[in-house]
Write a structure and sequence with these properties.
heterotrimer, A mainly alpha, B alpha+beta, C alpha/beta, B: alpha+beta, MetI-like fold, 3 domains, five-stranded antiparallel sheet, three-stranded antiparallel sheet, 15 helices, elongated, C: alpha/beta, D-Maltodextrin-Binding Protein, domain 2, 2 domains, six-stranded mixed sheet, 19 helices, globular
């Protein structure tokens, strides 16, 4: 046991040293090959050449890992999406035609749009509010930890928690679900929440918002603290009140971080299937694409073709966000 | 500190109240889980967790021991005992499931054939008859019991065989799987934020696109690749390289014991897989943060002749601590709570099981032990929360460093 | 360093393995009235495979895993093979990934014939020796049913015996509390007509007859499929059932729709079900049997498989606090006999080696079953076992139902393609208890099945 601890510690140390060694070493190597101190023209030419190569030294390991672990599977999936269920027989566009025509997929697609509208907006907003407010009260750190807690709970834990919120018992019995207990306490009739058409989608979304608010809060809080004090002091001197400072000065300052958080949560929404899978498995019209992808990929032996097709279409949905992010990046880069 | 808290305005109170409301809303479900983890399975299925805090009136059934436990009192045979194990008070009892609250405590119920049953308020009962008793008589009673909690669920989970080992395995997986991607991502993010090179915005776009690649999509191709590498590197098990591989622990012996190749299911494989899956978000978040750093600092360092490497290690890295810390928190969370990647890329033998897997095992083949689930959730949440607390102070350091400049 | 550590771990594991092999649950030779030790000795003599290893991947976790490992200990002790058993929460997904990626275990154990067929047709399963078929016919009660269950089509479409049934769960059971029956004066019904009359009688007496819960997280709906299958077996000849599982008899066939409606007779009547029909779909199947044991009882009857006692309240004594009766056949259809529906796990070879073959041989010995029977939750149709080995009377009674079966049929939803049996059928049943008509539900499921072709 102790040995394992030591081994793990050693591996980490070796790993970190190796990583620093790589970056440091490769930089030195680059400077040795293209010495900038070389006389005359060669020196400037060397600086230029090294400048072309150096960024790739920095992004190299990342690009390598991304290619192997993500790009390669994507390419593999593109290939699979034109093949049948065991991944051997070529079926042309059949999987895509199936995707467009399948009623269940269509329902999942529409639900997904609903999720995309609600969850990122709600989580980012609540995260921003909690980041801004908790930074200003003496028990802010405690509050932060409590809001962050759902993030630390595994999805399985989360589903158990919400089972005890949405649980339904008949009207004449003791309710063990919190929501129904509240409803009956106010004299209402208990309801099987996760089966209520349309609205049950929102009950499931609440779970993800509950989890993701902590994420948004932590990232945004870091960004808020990065705002130079002078900016705010200047605003205070100008006589701006709290809300004005928040919306006119602080929010614009961290706008790019808000965009990042929004993007990340949007993508999480597209990917998360655990909640739907564990709570309803898409029944009662609560399906989402990610759940369908999982179901087609693995259940009953799996149908790799259709699973890959759904995954790829989920990826296509991100293209607008990608374009938006490129624009943002270009704007930031201007003049650099 | 930001010019808001100075005066005691109504706004301050609104602020406190709204945070309080948010915290309560966010904590309530978790609190429910916590209380649930302190209750027994039978309590959980009959009453809501919020009732656990008050004394509850509950109907229950118990069974007297069989005839062998009887004693003879005068001319009657008697079986005596107590229905209450954890204190409380009996408010009614009955002899049949049809009328479980027929009698008040102290009354005597006639069971026929001269057999009688009585239960007192303190829970003691007496079953007596003129002839030898069969016993095994069901007693229905309504008891008012004080709040009762148990640490049994936690004891059950923590004392499970191999839990410590699983805990260590989880740490072995999670810590490097957090540190490696941060290092790689920090360099990449710096280049993407501050070093102009052709194709940069395209690379950023691709990284954003890769954020959405579902993990599940990668599992089979990557594991296939690992297995192929294992086969491709297979050498004679008794040769020099084979022996080295065997003793370094990186090798996996073939079934017949003649060949040895790189083990497709090793910690290294898991670390790299987690690195690959975590990188897009890491680069995305870190780049965004680094781009926002004050340009003057970096420009002036360049003018002073600092190399990019020096700028990165001496200026950008320390300034980016809040971003690094927040990503570290999340990546640690994910790798700690992950079961999928670990089961796919580590062998699923008992001794290499991670904690999430071990906790799941406790639930048995059919699952559904809510009390165990609840206790496990709290045990596994504790480590990420510790990480959160430990790193929380670094979320500020970047700011301080920045303001000192 | 790392290597040293790993070899140390491996060493530890070996020591641990040897230790567990040494303390066998029942010492060989003891209690000869219950155990066939001769079969153990004979097996040990003919299988010497010292130093070999065997990896097994199966669905059993927690308590079941401990039980299975206690059986494995005998295999290890007899052969000298070192067995590594592992399981995972998502074992279905895991086995798909492992076989597809090229790192399968030697032996896999799965409860879903549909999934096994899928693996077989992708060429991931080694056929069992040719004599397995005859062995099943000779040694398993209702042998032909088991042969059908063990036969799968390989890559070329040729049917071969590929999987060995081991450990059976009995589905056709109705659980009740004998004490509550006695209090109310109810008798165990012998026919379906009686059962329906009893249901109505309980309502007349002011009680609620049934507890039904279909909730099961991602698998919500499956308990209803067991109902429909059990009813279908009692309403139609087994051939209809077989045709139904292969879609030769369509879901929309009136015979099938009638079985669904018959389930509706029980589940859709608010007075018949605890909590009303609305509660059926949302109540977790693991919580629903608890209603039998509350005071006053929430219900009197619960249709469930033989594994359900794991979810009874703590301290419930089988035979005394809880008992079961066979889900009875219709008196009006005497020619259908006593059909039994069950489920169970099938063992198959995904990567051949001598130890794997030996393991299949081991499962054929009575002792492999008896060791598990003598502990808990294990039923077998193997005729050569000593029924006295069953740990308690409840299991003995269940085992007897298996041995007496005139027809045995495997859980139909498990035989169907995964997308139907573990997908559309579940969803359909949830929709059905939610108010959709039986005809529409059947049409939806059939549409999904057509979509697979």
């Amino acid at each position: 046991m102790l040995q394992q601890l030591i081994t793990a510690g050693l591996t980490i140390a070796v790993g970190i040293t190796a990583a620093f060694g790589y970056f440091y070493g490769s930089n030195i190597l680059l400077d040795l090959i293209f010495p900038s101190k070389a006389p005359g023209d060669r020196g400037t030419r060397n600086i230029r050449r090294a400048g072309v190569i150096r960024p790739w030294l920095f992004v190299g390991p990342a690009v390598l890992a991304l290619t192997l672990y993500l790009v390669y599977p994507v390419v593999d999936s593109i290939w699979l999406s034109f093949h049948g269920r065991d991944g051997h027989e070529f079926v042309g566009l059949k999987n895509y035609i199936w995707f467009v025509g399948d009623a269940r997929i269509r329902a999942a697609f529409l639900n997904n749009l609903l999720w995309l509208l609600v969850v990122p907006a709600a989580s980012t907003f609540l995260g921003l509010v909690s980041a801004a407010l908790t930074d200003r009260i003496f028990w802010g750190n405690l509050a932060k930890s409590l809001i962050f807690m759902p993030m630390a709970i595994s999805f399985v834990g989360a589903t158990v928690i919400w089972k005890f919120v949405y649980d339904y018992r008949a009207a004449n019995q003791t309710q063990i679900g919190l929501l129904n207990a509240i409803v009956t306490w106010f004299g209402g009739a208990p309801e099987a929440w996760i089966t209520v058409p349309f609205w049950n989608n929102f009950f499931l979304m609440v779970i993800l918002v509950w989890i993701q608010t902590g994420f948004a809060m932590v990232i945004l809080s870091a960004a808020l603290r990065g705002i130079p004090e002078e900016t705010i002091e200047a605003a205070v001197l100008d006589g701006a009140n709290g809300l004005q400072i928040f919306f006119r000065i602080m929010v614009p300052q961290i706008w790019s971080t808000i965009a990042v958080v929004w993007t990340t949560i949007t993508i999480t929404v597209l990917k998360v299937f655990d909640i739907v899978y564990a709570m309803t498995n898409g029944q009662w019209d609560t399906d989402v694409l990610a759940n369908q992808m999982y179901v087609w990929m693995f259940e009953g032996g799996g149908d790799y073709g259709r699973g890959a097709t759904i995954a790829l279409i989920i990826m296509l949905l991100v293209v607008p966000i990608m374009i938006w992010n490129i624009r943002n990046a270009r704007r930031e880069m201007e003049g650099r | 500190m930001l010019g808001l808290g100075g005066r005691k305005s109504p706004l301050v109170w609104v602020m406190h109240l709204s945070v309080l409301l948010l915290v309560v809303l966010w904590t309530l479900p978790t609190a429910g889980l916590f209380i649930t983890s302190l209750r027994t399975a039978d309590q959980i299925s009959v009453s809501g967790w919020w009732t656990a805090l008050s004394s509850a009136e509950r109907n229950a059934i118990t069974r007297t021991p069989d005839g062998s436990a009887e004693t003879q009192v005068g001319d009657r045979y008697v079986i005596a005992g107590n229905v209450l194990k954890n204190g409380g008070e009996v408010v009614a009892f009955g002899r049949s499931s049809l009328k479980p609250t027929q009698f008040k405590p102290g009354e005597v119920a006639d069971l026929g054939d001269g057999i009688t049953l009585s239960v007192k308020a303190d829970g003691s009962y007496e079953l007596s008859g003129p002839t030898k008793l069969e016993g095994g008589q069901r007693i229905f009673y309504t008891a008012r019991t004080p709040p009762a909690f148990t640490l049994g669920n936690y004891a059950h989970v923590l004392s499970a065989n191999g839990m410590l080992r699983a805990f260590m395995n989880s740490l072995t997986v999670a810590v490097p799987a957090t540190v490696i991607p941060i290092l790689i991502a920090a360099y990449a993010a710096f280049a993407l934020a501050w070093m102009p090179f052709p194709g940069r915005s395209l690379l950023i776009a691709i990284i954003v696109g890769l954020l959405v690649v579902p993990l599940q999509m990668s599992l089979i191709p990557i594991l296939t690749l690992y297995n192929d590498i294992g086969k491709a590197t297979a050498v004679d098990a008794h040769g020099v390289i084979g022996t080295l591989m065997h003793y370094s622990g990186l090798g996996q012996m073939s079934d017949d014991g003649t060949q040895i190749g790189l083990n497709p299911k090793s910690y290294l494989g898991v670390w790299l897989a987690h690195t690959g899956f975590g990188l897009p978000l890491a680069i995305f978040l870190l780049r965004n943060y680094m781009v926002g750093l004050p340009r003057e600092i970096i420009e002036s360092a360049r003018v002073d002749g600092a190399t990019d490497f020096q700028i990165f290690t001496r200026i950008v890295l320390p300034l980016s601590f809040p971003a690094l810390a927040s990503f570290a928190i999340f990546q640690f969370l994910w790798t700690w709570n992950d079961l999928l990647v670990a089961t796919v890329f580590l062998s699923h033998q008992q001794d290499s099981l991670v904690m999430t897997g071990k906790l799941k095992d406790l639930l048995g083949s059919h699952g559904g032990d809510w009390e165990i689930l609840a206790a496990s959730a709290f045990i596994s949440i504790s480590v990420p929360l510790l990480v959160f607390f430990a790193l929380q102070k670094y979320l500020v350091r970047g700011l301080l460093a920045g303001s000192v400049k | 360093m790392f290597g040293k550590f790993l070899t140390a771990v491996a060493g530890l594991a070996l020591v641990a393995g040897a230790a567990s092999a040494a303390d066998l649950k029942f010492k060989p030779g003891t209690d000869p009235q219950r155990f066939h030790w001769d079969s153990y000795d004979a097996f040990a003599k003919s299988h010497k495979l010292d130093g070999q290893t065997l990896t097994i991947f199966g669905p059993w976790r927690g308590e079941d895993q401990t039980l299975f490992e206690s059986v494995l200990a005998y295999f290890e002790a007899a052969t000298g093979v070192k067995v590594n058993y592992s399981s995972s929460e998502n074992y279905e997904q895991q086995i798909v990934i492992d076989t597809q990626a090229g790192s399968p275990p030697n032996i896999a154990v799965l409860p879903q014939p549909g999934l096994i067929q899928d693996l077989a047709s992708k060429g991931f399963i080694q056929p069992l020796p040719d004599d397995t078929k005859q062995w099943l016919l000779d040694n398993y009660a209702a042998g032909p049913s088991w042969v059908t269950l063990s036969t799968y089509k390989d890559k070329t479409g040729t049917p071969k015996v590929m999987a060995f049934p081991f450990k059976i769960d009995l589905k056709s059971l109705v659980w009740y509390s004998p004490g509550n029956f006695k209090d109310a004066g109810y008798k165990v019904p012998q026919t379906m007509e009686d059962l329906k009359a009893l249901t109505e009688q309980i309502v007349k007496d002011g009680g609620t007859p049934w507890c039904i819960g279909l909730g099961s997280g991602g698998a919500t709906g499956w308990p209803a499929t067991d109902w429909v299958e059990d009813l279908l077996l009692r309403m139609q000849p087994p051939e209809v059932y077989d045709g139904w599982t292969t879609n030769d008899v369509k879901f929309t066939d009136p015979k099938i729709v009638d079985a669904i409606k018959e389930f509706g007779w029980f589940a859709l009547n608010d007075k018949f079900v605890d909590g009303g029909s609305k509660a059926v779909a949302t109540t977790d199947f693991r919580d629903s049997p608890k209603g039998l044991f509350t005071s006053p009882p929430k219900c009197y009857l619960h249709h469930a498989a033989s594994f359900i006692p794991s979810f009874f309240p703590e301290g419930t004594k089988l035979g005394q606090d809880a008992d079961f009766f066979y889900f009875p056949p219709y008196a009006s259809k005497p020619d259908l006999g006593r059909p039994v529906e069950g489920a169970g796990t099938l063992v198959f070879i995904t990567k051949d080696n001598p130890a794997a073959d030996a393991f299949i041989d081991f499962l054929k010995t009575p002792i492999a079953s008896e060791v598990w029977m003598a502990q808990s939750s294990f039923l077998t149709p193997l005729k050569t076992v000593n029924v006295a080995a069953y740990a308690n009377d409840t299991m003995k009674k269940e085992g007897q139902i298996l041995l007496d079966a005139t027809t045995f049929r495997f859980d139909g939803s498990d035989l169907m393609p995964g997308k139907i049996g573990a997908g559309a059928f579940w969803t359909g049943m949830v929709d059905y208890v939610g108010g959709m008509s039986a005809d529409n539900v059947a049409a939806e499921i059939q549409k999904a099945w057509d979509g697979l072709k």
